[in-house]
Amino acid sequence: MNDMDRFADALISAHRTGKRFLPDGPVPQTREDAYRVQSRVIDTLGPVLAFKTALKPGDAPIMAPIRSQYCHTSGASVAMGDRMGIELELGWQIVAPLPAPDVPDFDAALARSVLPVPVIELVDTRVDGPLAEDPMVKLSDFQINHGLILGEPLVSWDGSDFGALTARFEAGSQVILDGQTEIPGGSALGTLGALVREIGGYCGGLQMGQVVITGSLHPLTYVSDACEVSGRIEGLGDVAVSLT
Known about the structure:
It is built from five helices and 13 strands. Helix 1 packs across helix 2. By secondary structure, it is an alpha+beta fold. It has helices spanning about 5-15, 30-45, 105-110, 135-140, 190-200, and strands at about 50-55, 60-65, 70-75, 75-80, 85-95, 115-125, 145-150, 165-170, 175-180, 210-215, 220-225, 225-235, 235-244.
């Protein structure tokens, strides 16, 4: 067992108990470290139902699996603890085998393999103390994913990409987003495609029925009181969760 295995085992315990832990030894310093931790947690705790990804120009996409335990259908109730971060996002549900990265018509084939779906991501750390804000610690902690709320996929989607969107997102009486917004990176299909080209068999790879989320449509917002959270993306649909 090395230092990353020790850190991973502390994360595994945090998943099982629902309690944060304060690191008392080395923490991940690189993406390789973070992905080693992610893999050990998934190997121990079980199936993946979704992935979150983000893409910065000139860099490989980040990858973070989302365990099936944390995935819920729209309208679910989720215990929030002392606080919960919330984000309205566009996701992709995989409905057909994904194309190989080197096929000549990759972009068109990718669009035939997925359907867009509105989602709410729930965000909270399993790490206590100042290291909870460290980028590689956050990545090892599944990019601090704490839940995923899934709306209905848009079966009538025409295959066109998403860049600019109109959306509304509110938590209780707080309006977080109301109006035009941008997909992170400007292309939801582009972000998905980058992950497909990168992921290979990591944490089981991308499988039929899974969902890939592509980044928040607004700044991350934390709420500390139980409330109803609802989102609408024009032309895509609604999604909601009760935080209790």
